[in-house]
Structures are given as C-alpha cells and as structure tokens.
Amino acid sequence: MVVIAEIFLSAFFTVLFDKLAPGELVKLALPEGIPSQLETLSSKLEMIKAVLSDAEAKQIAEESVNMWLEQLQDLAYDLDDLLDELATEALRRNPMMAQPTQASNPSMLRKLIPACCSTNFTPRAVKFDFHTSSKIDEITERLQDLLKQKSDLNLMNAHPGGTTFEITGDGRPRDTCSLPDPGFCGREKDKQAILAKMSLAGESGSERFRVIPIVGMGGIGKTTLAQEIYNDEEVKNSFALKAWICVSDKFDEFAITQRIYEAISLEPRDFKDLNMVQVKLQEMISNKKFLLVLDDVWNEKYGKWDVLSRPFHAGAPGSTVIVTTRNVSVASIMRSVPDYHLDGVENEGICSILAHHARGWQNFDAHPSFKETGEAIAKKCKGLPLAAKSLGGLLRTKENPSEWKEILNSKIWDLPAENDDILPVLRLSYHHLPSHLKRLFAYCSLFPKDYEFDKHELVLLWMAEGFLRPSETHKEMEYVGFQCFDELLSRSFFQRSKTGAESRFLMHDLVNDLARHVAGRVCFSLEDKAESNVQHRRDSLLKARHSSFIRHEYDGSQRFEAFSRVRKLRTFLPLPVFKRHRWWPHFYLTNQVVNDLLPQLHLLRVLSLSGYEILQLPNAIGNLKHLRYLNVSGTRVEQLPESVSELYNLQTLLLRDCSRLTKLPTDTRNLINLRHLDIAGTEELKEMPVGLCKMASLHTLSKIVLGRGLKVNELRDLSNLRGVLSIIGLQCVMDAQDAREANLTSKQGLEELEMVWSSDFDDTRNGMIETEVIELLKPSTNLRRLEVKHYGGVEFPSWLGDPSFSQLAHISLSDCRHCTSLPSLGHLPFLEKLRISGIQGVKTVGNELCGIDWPHVRDAFPSLETLEFVDMVSWEEWSTNLSEDDGNFRQMFPRLRELIIAGCPNLINISLPRLPSIRVLRIKR
C-alpha cells in the first residue's frame, strides 16, 4: 500500500467562508452580477463542507478519496487567489475601506489614490470585472464536478456536534532546554555500557583518543542518550575539555573544526583556512583529556574524517569522541571500538515516557482507568522514545479514558511505515492536531533538516500566507501566531535550539520527514531530489504553491528553470531567512531572475531576496498585488521602486542592514496594511517620507528619521508599536508640542527606545527646547532599554530614574555634553547595566546618582551588575559622603560585578563604600 500525503482542508474552508461572508462582500462593493455568482459558489462549497470530515477520515485508507481531496485543495487555492484579487482591486479603487477613520478627510484620501484609480469606471475595471466573472464560472464548474464525484465515493454528511479541536489553556508550552530530558528513562543499561567503553576508571594509555559510535534509527534516542552521558557528573570530573557539535548531513571539515575550537574556547573566531584552525585546535587540546560529541553524522568518506580527526591525536590518553549516526557505514570509518547499536526502549520504559509526557506520572500503576489503554498505546510506539514523547503531548489534552481508546483504535496504526521513517504514531499526532495547526506545521516542510528557524520570522511568514486569522477574542494575528507556535512546541513538533538563542527552534529529523509527507505537492524545495521521474516532478510542480531553497554563492537562471512552470507559486523563500553570523558571505542572484522571472509570479505572497548582492528591484515588483511579505534585508539596494507603495496588501517590509539604502518610496504611507517595517542598520537613510501616521497598523517601526517635513508627532496614531524604536534627528523638533502629541507613554508595547539628536552641537541647537522635548517624550513604563545620544539640554528629564520604570534593565547616556549633573537612577529596581559617556559638564558625582532621598531607601542600584564611565573629561570627584559607620548607611551597588572608568583624565578622588560583589575593575586613561 502506498503512503499518501494527508490533506486537511477544514481550516482552509473556514478562511474561505469568512471571505465569502455577506458582510465581507458588502465591504468590497463588487460589480453587478458578481455577488450572485459568489453566492452560488458559496452554496456549493457548503455542500462540499458537509462531507469534508468524512473525506479527511477516509483518505488514509482510500486513495481515490485522497485524490478527490487533492483536487479540492487545488480548487480552494484558486478560489482563495480569486477572492484575494477581488479584495485587492476593491482596495485599489477605494483605499478608504481599509482605514475607515479617514472617511472624514476626503482631501487626504484623494492624495492617497493614484490618478488612474480615482474612478471605478475605467477600461481596466471593465476588463477586470469580465475576467473575474469568467473565473468564478470556471471554479463553480470544477466544484460541480467534485460534487458529482462525492456520491461515487460514498462520502457522508458530518454529524451535528462532531468533534472539534481548539487551542486550550493560554497556549504556553512547558519550558525546555538543552539539558537532559527529565523524563529520561529506560536507558540506564545503555548509559552504563557506554561509560564502560569510555573506561573512566583508568586508561591504558595505549591510544590518544577513542571513537565510540552510537548507531540507531532516527528518533530512537541516540542524541538523548549522548546528552545524558555528556552531563553525567563522573564524566564532567574526568575530562578537562568538552564540546558538543551537531554535524548533520553537511560534513565540512573546516566549519566543524572551527565550531569545535569555538565550543572549547568560548570565543568566536573567523579563521581564514583549515590549516590555521587545526593548528590552533591542536595547541588548545595538547596533552589535555577531552570529550567531543559529534551528533548526527552522515559522512561516509574516510578522507574527510581523517582530516577532521588529525588535531585529536594531540589530546591526552583517554580522550573520547562519541558519534551518533543512523548509518553503520558512517560508524565503520570512524570507530576505534565496536559500534554501540541502540535498540528500542523496552515497553516499561516507553510506558514511563508516555505517562510522564501525557500526565506527569512515573507510570500508569496508580491510575487503573488509564493503565490498560496506556500500555496498549505504548506498545504501538514500537520502542521509539520520540514517538512516546510526541504521542504523550497529544494525550495531554485528552482527559477521558474513552478518548485514549479512540486513539488506540485509530486505523492509522495499521499503515505501513514504508521506507520514509515516518512512523504511524507521528502521523497520528499530526492527524489529531487542530485543523488550523495542520496547515502551519505542513508549511514548515520548507525548512531543511537541522535548519534553525526563528520563531518571530515564522509567524510573519504564516501571517503573510493567510494562515492566521484574528481570533473571536479580537487577538491580533501576531498573538494568534505565537499561540499556535507554542502549541506545536508543546506537542513536540518543534524543539528549542541548543545554541541558547531563545527565539530559535528546529524540528527533529523524523518530524521533518512527517512535515514533508503531509505537505505533499503543495510545498517543494529545489534541493529535494526525491522525485526520480522527471515528468512526475514536473507534474508535481504544477500543483506547488510554496517553495524554498538554500542560497548558493551564485544563483543563476538555470537553477530556477522549474519556476517558469509554477505560475501559481505563493512563496519564494531563500534560506536562511535571518543573519546567523557576523560574517555574512556574498550571494549573487542573476538579474534574469530578479527582473524577468519574479514579476511573472503574480500570486506571490512571500518574496525574500535577503542576503543577495542585488543593487535594485525592478519597477514591475509593484505588480505583485498579492504580496504580503517582502524581505530585502542585507542587500545593496539604494532605494526601492516607487511602485512598492502600490502593494496595498503588504504586511511586512524588511530592509534590515541595507547599508546603502538612502530613501523609501515617496508614497510609503499608501501601505495601509503594513504591520512591520524594519529599517535597522540603514545608516545612509537620512530622511523618511511624511504620512507615517496613516500607517496605523504598524507594529514594528525600528527607526524614524525626522526632518524634511516628517515630524515626531507622526507617531501619535501608531498605538500598536512594539519592540524597538529609534527616533533619529530630534534636534529638528522646534515645537515641544509635537513631542507631547507623539504620546510615547501610550506605546505600551515598546521595549527598547533610542533618542538621538545630531552630534553637531552648533548654534542652531536650542537647549531649552531640547530639555522640554525630552521631558515630553516620556515613554511607557514597560521600557526595558533606553539610549540617549547627543542630547543638548543641561539636565535630564524628571522621569528618568522614576521607580515606576521597574522594567528598565539597560541605560546608556552618551555625548550629552551640556548636562551638569547625572540623573537619579538608584531607585530603578532591575537596572542591570548603566553606561555614561561623554557628559563633559559633570565635575562631581555624589549621592544624587543614588537618589535625593538616598539615606531613606533600602538599597541603591540593587540589581546593577555593570557600570561604565567613559570620556568624562571634566569629572574630578566621585564620593558618596557615606560610610559603613553611618547610622543611615544602606547598601550601595550590592551586585555590581564590573566597574569600568576610562578617559576621565581629571578624576582624582574616588570614595565609595565597600563593593561586595566586584569581580572586574578597569581604570584607564
């Protein structure tokens, strides 16, 4: 029996019915005749929807039903494209529908509408209406054919009150980390056997290092066992150096050696060649006993392993390399002791793992109502710990023993695993996902194995693809996306990255296989060579909607030849989508792709060109009317074409680290649906267009550059701002009332704020106005980081240091050269780092830094760990005028670990109380 991709359209149909709802159609002001056509189409969709649950249940065992669902899925995509086209055209004709608050300002509205769009009655409009009507007729005809087939397939109407799925609780998953799984069990014998191979009790000295391969199938627990050994107390005490490296399928001797060096030295290094890094590694481990884990190795070439292992011979006797791999031939070229083959965990251990992840129990012994069913389900896991953990996540939401029996009796258990390593238990976990999560998970098949994806980036992609809809509780799409992500994480579909970065995740290889399986033909990767039949591959591409690929140093047009046939493509996604290292290699994309191919992909929702050395985008990019996500980060573009401002559906525009970018499109304000505009790292961007206040949907605005007509009060209506905001050019604010109207206090989502004036302190600066401006730019008390640069007033604002800013953890005050005293910051309860530089007017620092009422507070700077004073050229004395004998004495800087004073040539007196936690003291110049 051939395993076929599972198709679940319930969530997709929900989206379509939302768009076809009478209220939504009224908003579109559709041309005459089209509403009645859509109403007919909607009624037929209702008939399909009635049998959808039955079809989804039967597709596993009946290939004909799966083929019917595949046709229905293709039709659903075409209908979604059509409805999107209708909404986009309506928005083009009348942008006011997206911003109802502007109805009272028709003069401004007329400025927003291009001349060609000022009337509904244009030749373009007539042509569009005719095309739309024909398209609806075609889709309706296809739908009618599918309705005829449903009878032949014996599909039954759904019963009222059938099972529904929804996210429960607050959507927050249980926290995980790279430490051993607390639910680890059933592997003690394996652990002791490996420890015996390592001969911890005493080395013979006959070999400099030994290689111990752990061999087993994906998901069997090789990595978990290696982690348990790596963190064993006896192991920790027996090795001077340790390193853990995930190798995966790309065995690059240079890259792996560098990662080993960095893991041991804890210092990032960019070596130029293999010889240099291997010499350095050899010196570092010379005559030292080391433990190295090479996890998930696929390399079968002895020469590559021979080169990588040469520095290891310098280690002390007893040094050990543990290798985990699925392939016996891989182990054979590396091993110095016999392989350790990892078999499945005995059922008792699997029961414990299942019970732990399903209910937090040690086993089922004390829970007789679940015992029989739980143990039977454990047997279905066939000794696979990953399966038990994944299924345990599924059962966690099932409170009734009868629900467990339903899972036990599911027909999906009877499917053969074939050769794709996708076990029935993982397919079942997917099968029982809420329908809206199925689409989100399948989309992740675009990521290759071991790829670390960013949580925030993935949510933006989901949003752009139309997978996320505002919830009934009026939660924003981003919130819904993070809730869905956390639910998938809690069900073990995602794992936290071992790099330590909070926002980075990956999928286990077996789960990645599952994602590719369930995505079917809808998602494809240029790296995927699974299709041996060229014609079959071409047929598959015709159904494709989403595509990803790994960037090459040069990507020519030949590589994208397949895209010329994929006219309905929605996703053009080079990977990685974020900058992973400080060193960013050069990637080149041929102009034929940028100028000729991409403009032909009219249905694109996601377009990323990030990291490519492209100089400009074609004006035709403005024809991609469906586009929601445009990522040009890290490119060399100097400006975007003006046509970008016609992308009314655009939600995310990423221009981070575009170092040559000098301007944004003049009519950027037309992007009324834009939610995320990231222009961090664009140092050449000296001006921004006016009208940002019209983009009321903005959540991310990393920077605003004032001047040339753009005033700070344009922040007034941007109430949804989140994350980081830099306000550049505050010297341009001539009316302090503009600062008041900016209303930063109401921006509750802002976590980091940078206030920047010009570094040129010329005669045009007005210190009194600047003092009033910074006072009126009081931010929300939710702020976590604050930077003030080149401020020209003589005193800092009264709100700076107010204890109500209880979340502030980092403050930097630089080149505020006219200030004569420092703000009172000692009352901030969670301030961890304070940097003060270039404040030339300060001569003495006393108790005022801790607070005017310092003797009456319990502690000053209770959480401060790092304090820096730099380039304070007039500073002469720092004294608290307090001593430990003083009856009013309270602790100052109780947690200060690092104190740096540099470039303060006139400082001649420092008198402080004892600093009990100081570890680093640097005083220079």
Automatic annotation (TrEMBL):
This protein's UniProt keywords: ATP-binding, Coiled coil, Leucine-rich repeat, Nucleotide-binding, Plant defense, Repeat, Signal
Give the range the annotation lists for the signal sequence. 1-17
Q: Which residues does the UniProt record annotate as the domain NB-ARC? A: 189-336
Q: Which ranges of the sequence are coiled-coil?
A: 38-89
* UniProt key word Repeat: yes
Q: Which domain of life is it from?
A: Eukaryota
Keyword check for Repeat, yes or no.
yes
Q: Which residues form the R13L1/DRL21-like LRR repeat region domain?
A: 713-838
Ranges where the Disease resistance protein winged helix domain occurs: 446-515
Provide the GO MF annotations for this entry. ADP binding; ATP binding
Instruction: Tell me a GO biological process for this protein.
Output: defense response to virus
Q: Which residues form the Disease resistance N-terminal domain?
A: 8-99
The record's family statement is: Belongs to the disease resistance NB-LRR family.
Q: What is this protein called?
A: Disease resistance RPP13-like protein 1
